Amino acid sequence: MLVIFAVRSAKFIPSKRWVIVGSDDAFIRVYDYGTMEKIKEFQAHKDFIRCMGVHPTLPYVLSASDDTIIKLWDWEKDWMRTQTFEGHSHYVMRVAFDPQDPNAFASASLDGTIKIWNVHSPKLTLDAHEKGLNFVDYFSRDDMLYLLSGSDDYTAKVWDDKGRSCVQTLEGHEHNVTTVRAHPELPIVITGSEDETLRIWDANGFRVAAACDEGIAVVEIVC
């Protein structure tokens, strides 16, 4: 048995042939995904690990936790913690690296805010939703970078990453929006909710193009 606690986040690091796992015992575990040999195991937080993010080019991993803290780990330094980011006042549900700025990332918390960080401190705090956030991620459209967020206020929002303003609110779900994804090539955004539905939005005008009743709460969408 590899892990005996609930797993809330797992990410591949293809360049190393690793999969990293964050679990409810607050540990990060690193496995060779070919042999499933355990490479590393260490306690990263004091509470559940909600999410991890792998940097696209640097040897960095972010971990976010119910202890309200985000940490940056460097696997080339034997998984040394190189930075700690404090500022959220509730569970940190999601982190996402900025695809255009290697020193920046966004975080979403049940405190209702999105924070934009650099490697030293938060650059910006957005009072994003009326209730807690479950999701944040970046996406590009027409050579512009945006943020997507999903919340317990039953909405998703699109944020102008430069102006830091909300450019669109996606309304229609009847329960918490748990995940929001943009198609990597097509102008499509998909939202998933605890109302047991998926909604597909036209990213040009952000109108609902289709809805799908899954019959079970949607917690994640993979694109």
Short structural summary:
The chain has strands at residues 7-13, 18-23, 27-32, 38-43, 49-54, 60-65, 70-74, 80-85, 92-97, 105-109, 113-117, 122-127, 133-141, 144-151, 156-160, 165-170, 177-182, 188-193, 197-202, 207-213. It is mostly beta strands. It has a four-stranded antiparallel sheet, with no helix packed on it. A four-stranded antiparallel sheet has the order 5-6-7-8, with no helix packed on it.
Helices and strands in order, then pairings?
Layout: E1 7-13, E2 18-23, E3 27-32, E4 38-43, E5 49-54, E6 60-65, E7 70-74, E8 80-85, E9 92-97, E10 105-109, E11 113-117, E12 122-127, E13 133-141, E14 144-151, E15 156-160, E16 165-170, E17 177-182, E18 188-193, E19 197-202, E20 207-213
Antiparallel strand pairs: 1-2, 2-3, 3-4, 5-6, 6-7, 7-8, 9-10, 10-11, 11-12, 13-14, 14-15, 15-16, 17-18, 18-19, 19-20
Largest sheet features: 4 strands, antiparallel
Ranges where pLDDT stays below 50 over 5 or more residues in a row are none
- Helical/strand content category: mainly beta
* Number of alpha- plus pi-helical segments: 0
Q: Give helix % range.
A: under 10%
What is the 3D shape?
Answer: globular
Please tell me how large the radius of gyration is.
17 Å
Which strand order spans the largest sheet, edge to edge or round the barrel?
Answer: 1-2-3-4
Order of helices and strands: EEEEEEEEEEEEEEEEEEEE
What percent of residues are in strands?
Answer: over 45%
Mean pLDDT: 88
> Which assembly state applies to the chains in this document?
single chain
Count of β-strands? 20
Distance between the termini: 29 Å
